[in-house]
Amino acid sequence: MQASASAKLRSIPATFEPTKLAEVDRRLDAIEALDKVAIGLAIESGSRAWGFPSPDSDYDCRFIFVRRPEDYLSPWPKRDVIETPLVDDMDLNGWELGKALKLMLKGNAVVLEWLMSPITYRGDATFRDELADLARRHANRPAIARHYLHLGIRQRQTYFADDKQVALKKVFYALRPAVALRWLAEHPQAVIPPMHFQTLIGDCDIPTEVLAIAEALVARKAITNELGTGLLPPPIREFIDKEFARQADLGRVPTVLSAAARLDAEAFFRSTIDRLARQSGPTKA
Q1: In the prediction, which pLDDT does 250 show?
Q2: Integer Cα distance of 57 and 47 in angstroms
Q3: In this structure, are residues 166 and 233 in contact, taking their beta carbons and an 8 Å threshold?
Q4: Is the pLDDT at 174 greater than 80, yes or no?
Q5: Which residues, listed in sequence order, are joined to residue 87 by a DSSP beta bridge?
Q6: Measured on CA atoms in the order 244, 245, 246, 248, is the torsion positive or negative?
Q7: Exposure winner among 55, 84, 90, 143, fewest CB in 10 A?
Q8: Cβ within 8 Å of residue 10, ≥6 positions away
């Protein structure tokens, strides 16, 4: 499929390895051609986009795609995901737009993070901006907070028993959700927290000790594949436990979509398929 007329998105750090970028581009081209889809947005997700990569961090490309209009009219619907094998450090997977919309509006924060990624391989500006606007108007904010709460608690319980030595790089697994909860609490009118960790933590009132430890770990992680092991630093432990306890009442959050959200999502879904697929030229058999 040919590209649409909307402005094209691409934001790649100058430090990105050219051969890796070329390989991501090649694989995305192959997915569009072989699976007969149009990719509305393809970004980097994971430690590189979060702002705390290691020299050996994987390339975690995630994308949202639409199929040809005729594929949506078949009695045998195609899969709503495209998964590719993890080869070396290259991992590309994507969600069909309908799946992404339903999860996003129910409070799954994954798509919101994709919209906020600072690393964009390719994308349609109208698609991204309209999807972000839909999220801001209709995403379930308490459910988004619950997403980060459950993610953080799971990481805390899995990796950070108080007397257990752990890989220090895993500190971020619990700290990032805790900071996202703090950000949401301090920005009551906002829905989408920054994905980039330094931006996120810099936009919150965070204890000085927590900031210092986080900055030191990020700096060390950038130059070494191994941070070693240790106990969860006490200031980090106190901060994340306090944030998780403060949000403990988010255990049950209604996820029923309003009629307005459904109508707006349906309109966006149809117009996007029409613009990215039908208007991109004749479909291929």
Answers
A1: 67
A2: 7
A3: no
A4: yes
A5: 90
A6: positive
A7: 55
A8: 120, 121, 122, 123
Percentage of the chain exceeding pLDDT 90: 70
8 pLDDT above the threshold of 90 = yes
Q: pLDDT tens digit string along 176-224?
A: 999 999 999 999 999 999 999 999 999 999 999 999 999 998 888 888 7
- Yes or no: say if 41 and 7 are a contact pair by the CB < 8 Å rule: no
Cross-strand partners of 166 = 230
pTM: 0.90
Q: How far is residue 120's CA from residue 9's CA, in Å, rounded to a whole number?
A: 7
Residue 238 vs residues 84, 107, 129, 180: alpha-carbon distances, Å? 40, 27, 37, 16
